[in-house]
Amino acid sequence: MEAMTDNSVILRKEVREKVEEISEADILVGIPSYNNARTIGHVVRAVQAGLTKYFPEARSVLVNSDGGSTDGTMDVVRETTVDFDSILLKHRVGRFYKIITPYQGIPGKGSAFRTIFEIARELNVKACAVVDSDLRSITPEWVELLIRPVLDGGYDYVAPYYHRHKYDGTITNTIVYPITRALYGKRIRQPIGGDFGFSGKLASFYLTKDVWDTDVARYGIDIWMTTTAVANGFRICQSFLGAKIHDPKDPGADLSAMLHQVVSSVFHLMEEYEDVWKNIEGSTEIPTFGFVYAVGLEPINVNLDGMLDKFRLAMKELVPLYESILPEELMWFLTSLTQSSKEKFRFPDNVWAEIIYNFAIACHRKIMNEEHIIKSLTPLYLGKVASFVIETWDSSAEEVEERLEDLCLTFEREKPYLMERWFEEYEV
């Protein structure tokens, strides 16, 4: 798509003045925020300590791109500093700057990132990273692990690789990772992880994409960044960051809004990059940096009965809608599943892959309002998660990862099922 004539129009006057004062920088770390005063101070200290410890010669900039916080988040960022003597860090030779600004545009993480990309481009930085503002597990080492592959290894995109509780990140585990891997052929374990490294070149490329007035600016930015980098041939790797500890969410809680946001982004990207993914078979590993080790994780509460109740209720109330999306044999299986006891409730991987692919095809063919299609996926997703929890209740983290590998391989094997239906002629 054509680049906008003047991306810098989104930057506030005082930010442009600060950018002109700094002139050029080597590294930029962005922290998008919205009412994160409780956690963002720790993130800022970790970032500043990481830049000082691992990149003491570099001119570094921390950018807080804020969505209109009312809890003093920006003040916390402004006032937070690191006592370097107390943590035995050598004196900085390079300069360290902070830019703290509300972002402009549609409310959402994507608009926050656009501001970060814009400042990175204006400062001609070599390497960038973005990290979430609610992280409790971030350490100074994260900064090196996200930046070093770009500066020294020539990579353009560094995805995060974390260990998470086996029932944290179920949208990633059951939908986003398997379908993204099957479509684009890269085993990026956390394609919507929230913490990324990227080159200045890639930041500038993102700005040429005319998505900033769309839902990508509101949500979906993480999967958009990952897919855009992969589909356009940028060099990809991942870095092991240890534990991902943030405010945990029960996978049985109301995740319908998040699921709709992420899945709709995945499906829109399928439209944009169908000429890329239609030619890819199987998947390959990507380089992984960092020392992979076992980590302690906080427990996640799981409301298993609640998930099963929502699945069964939907199979009573939404049958006509599902019949317009899913073929007869899948409907027969789902109907029979409602009669299963909790102990015997099993949702096979091949059935799940075919369901996801049929929902993608329904959106591709525009058989009804896209929001109705994707929101109706939520109860089926809860059924799949419930089955996964029942199967893996006594499994170790390593065994769960092996189980997810089986799921991903099933999505890859079922890809011809998607291709046949996606590209066949149909009546509009």
> CATH superfamily of the largest domain, please?
Spore Coat Polysaccharide Biosynthesis Protein SpsA, Chain A
Tell me about the biggest sheet?
Answer: 8 strands, mixed
Overall form: globular
CATH topology of the largest domain: Spore Coat Polysaccharide Biosynthesis Protein SpsA, Chain A
Q: Provide the succession of SSEs.
A: HEHEHEHEHEHEHHHEHHEHHHHHHHH
Helix content bin: 40-55%
Class by alpha and beta content: alpha/beta
User: Could you say what the CATH architecture of the largest domain is?
Assistant: Alpha-Beta Complex
Q: Tell me the distance between the termini.
A: 27 Å
The proportion of residues in beta strands is: 5-15%
Number of helical elements: 19
User: pLDDT below 50 for ≥5 consecutive residues: which ranges?
Assistant: 1-7
If you average the pLDDT, what whole number results? 89
**Cα radius of gyration in angstroms:** 22 Å
Widest sheet, order of strands: 3-2-1-4-6-5-7-8
Task: Write a structural description.
With 428 residues, the chain is α/β, with parallel strands linked by helices. The chain has 2 domains: 7-289, Spore Coat Polysaccharide Biosynthesis Protein SpsA, Chain A (Alpha-Beta Complex); 304-422, no CATH class. It has 19 helices and 8 strands. The chain has helices spanning 13-22, 37-54, 73-79, 109-122, 140-153, 170-184, 200-207, 215-218, 221-231, 256-272, 274-277, 304-317, 319-325, 328-337, 349-365, 370-375, 377-392, 397-413, 415-422; strands at 27-33, 60-66, 96-102, 127-130, 157-163, 196-199, 236-243, 288-289. It has an 8-stranded mixed sheet, sandwiched between helices. The longest helix has 18 residues, at 37-54. The chain is globular. The chain starts with 12 loop residues before the first helix and ends in a 6-residue tail after the last helix.
